[in-house]
Amino acid sequence: MKASVTVLALAAGLVIASQAAAAPAPPAFPAAAPNSIVTATATVAPMQIKQVSDRIYMITGQGGNATIHVGFSEVILVDTKNAGTANFNDLVGRVRWATQLPIHTVIITHQHGDHSGNIGQFTAQKVPVIAHEALAAGLARQPVAAGAAPPALPSVSYAGPFYTVRNSFGGTEAIVHHFAPGHTAGDSVVYFPNQKVVALGDELVATTPNIDSPNGGSAKGFRDSLAKVLELDFVWAIPGHGDNPMTKAEVAAYKAKWDTFIARGQAAVKSGVTKDKLMASIKADDLGWNVTTPIWANPARVDALYAEFSN
Ligand SMILES: [Zn+2]
Question: Is 302 inside a domain boundary?
């Protein structure tokens, strides 16, 4: 397992090197950090920590990507991986590889379990867990299997457009933005202005995106939120899924895909395509997206998209 981790790290290093060549004055990217704790399974990639800027690291594997900001006296963590004590311990172990400073604040980008899975592990230790108010509502609405405990809720819910996370000296460390409901109703985008890094959760992914319409997601919300993200001064964007950070140009290209996808959807509805043919009629292969998978064919999601594309 260690050998394959090394191979992945080398491959990732090559990709990063080619990105760095195109980016304006990018920070140096070391290859993936050596991993002292490996909890590999046959099907899910083990966690890996990579340095993105002086004070920012991303942690891939075992769920959506997590991000940490190592401040002068404390750590901010964005997202918490799939639920489970082993994942929680592994995640904290990766943070400990980067720093011994305490985790002071946790921010959750959206309600899905691969990002919000270990909220309860942090609230149990009295670490503030911050999320948009629609995230808490979404988690509380989630069906709970018989005999299972309901998901733990964030300890701090913010309403409105943003929430500022300050360090112990009162300085602004992170600005948690809710620009629009895109992936879900309660999306947060976490901006680290001093590092020029932004963590987008699943509003940015390296694969086909996913609009969770039953939980308030929206194609136009995706587009509008990404437009706001592009107004921020950043060098690197951390996607919710994908092994590497992305440049601002890559985020702009991704936002342009949404513009194209929405325009094609609107044209399809205008031309009289029926709901059952909608997804098959929207060309997306040239965007690198597959929108004919079962998750996109879910009737509740098609209904929502059809309504969005109708005006
Ligand atoms: Zn998600």
Answer: no
C-alpha 205 to ligand 1 mean position (Å): 9
Task: Give the integer Cα–Cα distance in Å for 208 and 7.
Answer: 25
Residues of the domain holding 174: 2-248
202 found inside a domain: yes
Could you tell me if residue 268 is inside a domain? no
Count of domains observed in the chain: 1
Amino acid at 75: V
- Give the Å distance between the CA of 264 and the centre of ligand 1: 24
Give the separation between CA 158 and CA 66, rounded to whole angstroms: 20
Domain-located, residue 236: yes
Q: Where are the beta strands (DSSP E) in the chain?
A: 48-51, 56-60, 66-70, 75-78, 103-107, 129-132, 156-158, 162-166, 172-177, 189-192, 197-199, 236-238, 246-247
* Cα of 139 from ligand 1 centre, angstroms: 13
The CATH number of the domain holding residue 13 is: 3.60.15.10
Full pLDDT tens readout for the chain, 311 residues = 343 433 333 334 333 333 444 444 433 333 344 333 333 344 678 999 999 999 999 999 999 999 999 999 999 999 999 999 999 999 999 999 999 999 999 999 999 999 999 999 999 999 999 999 999 999 999 888 899 889 999 999 999 999 999 998 999 999 999 999 999 999 999 999 999 999 999 999 999 999 999 999 999 999 999 999 999 999 999 999 999 999 999 999 999 999 999 999 999 999 999 999 999 999 999 999 999 999 999 999 999 999 999 98
Residue 202 Cα, ligand 1 centroid: separation in angstroms? 5
